[in-house]
């Protein structure tokens, strides 16, 4: 299946942004650890959240989380302190995504986990039992989800958990998001120095919790606004918060450099509101940025900057090779189809110095990666007849993306 995308002559839309997958999946684990007594509002309906919700509700012996990376990491920890034995598995790509650092850390704490296939990778056989806690180290550069998985179960440990992150720390805002949510659920957890976190042995307490709308989903509408024709464009996004705990809320500052300004209808803390996007002439000819704290925005900015003729050098992309696909290789391959030669360095940098190549008429491949489809769709404003293969992959995080584009006047 593929879509051929025809963009409208102008962009005029007001829409509700979907709930955050990242917040939803953390909240589901904490809800499960309060024995279901917590009430969650505005839960995401994306594939990754639904598969986690189904697993926690039904708890079959074999749990297949398909391609849901956060579900794999969070359930590895959650099942370790639960009851009974479970096999945790996923897609062929999921079985290529490393999980050894998390398994090693859990084993140090006393967890019983065995590899059912290649060591260091799913599937896993997990025998659940109580874990005492203590002090451990884990590499900070591999995945913030490994750290989050350990933190989420730490309040259940009689000794609590002191967690030291070694080396560079990737996606630190996602760790801060986890700690903030844990405190909302009445746990005691915080940084005690620049690379060490302490979680006290105080269980979560039941509460009523509302999931924020997703700033990562909003990023694609910023890109659409930036690439729309030089006519009057009007975009309103509902349900976002000023002062959000989401690291990807940095998108509003980055796009301001590209001429897209954000106006909040309300700046009251913790209150969902409507934002209006305004476009001004882009004063920028080059954007250099380190995406260590917000790697999920990288694809959006690679596509958008190149099509705006803004040269760039993006660093901090070390986790992109371990996502749903190798996003660094995928971006280089697919951007060539649009006529742009993107270079890489050190397996964690992408840069463009203006080099062009002959574009092809081949469709954009999505590699079973939702963010490839989400990030490339705005290019339809600049690329006539843009085709995207397997557009259904967006259901992983933004199930109604294509419907929202239709509301904005796109023809698919």
Automatic annotation (TrEMBL):
Record keywords, A-Z: Amino-acid biosynthesis, Aromatic amino acid biosynthesis, Cytoplasm, Transferase
Compartment(s): Cytoplasm
GO cellular component, one term: cytoplasm
GO biological process, one term: chorismate biosynthetic process
Catalytic residues in the record: 296 (proton acceptor)
EC number(s) on file: 2.5.1.19
Gene Ontology molecular functions: 3-phosphoshikimate 1-carboxyvinyltransferase activity
Reactions catalysed: 3-phosphoshikimate + phosphoenolpyruvate = 5-O-(1-carboxyvinyl)-3-phosphoshikimate + phosphate
Record InterPro entries: Enolpyruvate_Tfrase_dom (IPR001986), Enolpyruvate_Tfrase_sf (IPR036968), EPSP_synthase (IPR006264), RNA3'P_cycl/enolpyr_Trfase_a/b (IPR013792)
Domain Enolpyruvate transferase: 6-60, 63-405
Binding site for 3-phosphoshikimate: 21-22, 26, 143-145, 171, 296, 323
SUPFAM superfamilies in the record: EPT/RTPC-like
Family matches, as Pfam families: EPSP_synthase (PF00275)
Binding site for phosphoenolpyruvate: 21, 69, 97, 145, 327, 371, 396
Pathway the protein takes part in: Metabolic intermediate biosynthesis; chorismate biosynthesis; chorismate from D-erythrose 4-phosphate and phosphoenolpyruvate: step 6/7
Subunit note: Monomer.
Protein purpose: Catalyzes the transfer of the enolpyruvyl moiety of phosphoenolpyruvate (PEP) to the 5-hydroxyl of shikimate-3-phosphate (S3P) to produce enolpyruvyl shikimate-3-phosphate and inorganic phosphate.
UniProt cross-references to HAMAP family, sorted A to Z: EPSP_synth
Family: Belongs to the EPSP synthase family.
Identification of the protein by name: 3-phosphoshikimate 1-carboxyvinyltransferase
């Amino acid at each position: 299946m593929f879509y051929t995308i025809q963009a409208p002559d102008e962009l005029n839309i007001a829409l509700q942004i979907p709930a955050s997958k990242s917040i939803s999946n953390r909240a589901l684990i904490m809800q499960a650890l309060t024995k279901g007594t917590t009430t969650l509002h505005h839960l995401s309906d994306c594939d990754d959240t639904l598969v986690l919700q189904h697993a926690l509700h039904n708890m079959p012996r074999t749990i297949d989380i398909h391609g849901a990376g956060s579900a794999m990491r969070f359930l590895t920890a959650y099942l370790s302190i639960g009851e009974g034995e479970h096999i945790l598995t996923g897609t062929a790509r999921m079985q290529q995504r490393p999980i050894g650092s998390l398994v090693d850390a859990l084993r140090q704490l006393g967890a019983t986990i065995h590899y059912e296939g290649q060591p260091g990778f799913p599937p896993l056989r997990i025998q659940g039992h109580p874990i005492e806690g203590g002090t451990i180290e884990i590499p900070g550069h591999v995945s913030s989800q490994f750290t989050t998985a350990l933190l989420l179960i730490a309040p259940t440990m009689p000794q609590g958990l002191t967690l030291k992150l070694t080396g560079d720390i990737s996606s630190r805002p996602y760790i801060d998001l986890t700690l903030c949510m844990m405190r909302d659920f009445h746990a005691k957890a915080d940084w005690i120095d620049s690379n060490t976190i302490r979680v006290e042995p105080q269980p979560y307490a039941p509460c009523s919790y509302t999931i924020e709308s997703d700033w990562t989903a909003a990023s694609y509408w910023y890109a659409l606004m930036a690439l729309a024709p030089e006519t009057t464009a009007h975009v309103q996004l509902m349900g976002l918060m000023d002062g959000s705990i989401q690291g990807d809320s940095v998108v509003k500052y980055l796009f301001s450099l590209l001429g897209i300004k954000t106006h909040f209808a309300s700046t009251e803390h913790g209150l969902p509101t409507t934002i209006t996007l305004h476009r001004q002439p882009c004063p920028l000819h080059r954007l250099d940025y380190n995406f260590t704290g917000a790697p999920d925005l990288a694809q959006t900015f690679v596509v958008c900057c190149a099509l705006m003729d803004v040269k760039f050098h993006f660093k901090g992309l070390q986790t992109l090779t371990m996502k749903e696909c190798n996003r660094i290789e995928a971006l280089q391959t697919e951007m060539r189809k649009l006529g742009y030669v993107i270079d890489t360095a050190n397996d964690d940098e992408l840069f463009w110095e203006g080099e062009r190549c002959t574009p092809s008429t081949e469709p954009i491949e999505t590699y079973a990666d939702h963010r490839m489809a989400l990030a490339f769709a705005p290019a339809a404003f600049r690329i006539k007849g843009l085709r995207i293969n397997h557009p259904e992959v967006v259901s992983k995080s933004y199930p109604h993306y294509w419907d929202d584009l239709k509301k904005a006047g796109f023809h698919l």
